[in-house]
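This is your field. Have a critical look at the following sequence-structure pair:

***
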Amino acid sequence: MRKLLYAAFVLFTPILILATPPVKTADTKLVTRDGILYLKEEVTATLTAYCICSICCEKDADGLTAIGRDATLEGAATDTSKIPYLSLVEIPDVGILTVDDTGGAMRQSKDVHIDVRMSTHQKALEFGRLQKKVSAYYRVYVVQSGDTLSAIARKLGYRGYKKLAKINGISNPDNIQVGWILKIYWIPEKKLA
């Protein structure tokens, strides 16, 4: 039941496009994982760990991640302007985790900072602080024949296309090209107001 609810949650949540210019398919590493298209990039990240206790999460220790997932599940927190919600991170000796949380330390870091969620406070302490190359998998939308910016915006849950054009560096919304790749990510509905 939880998997079904999570699938519905992912399918019917608003999406925001990152402020990066669209890129052509030939210039990227596209991969499909579980039927979802991702852009794979290698990044060097600072890795730390946390658990869902009140020491690590303070007032936010309510058992839920920033996007409402069960915090007892495996996952990671990042600065979501660098690695967006629902992206995947593949960390050597850890595995593949879904980005479903954020925190002040990640947002204040100048570099990519990933906080791995652990099952206990002791495991989080033992993890320490590391620098490693990791693979980040960003969800993407590839512009198709017949797409308009307006239609894409509707598909992704936007109220209009102007913000979509602006945050993707698209100066002429009537001139989008087949094959352009737009990085996308989910944001909590409460922040859409």
In short: The two ends are 30 Å apart (CA to CA). Residues 1-21, 23-27, 187-193 have pLDDT under 50 and may be disordered. The domain at 28-139 is CATH 2.40.40 (Barwin-like endoglucanases).
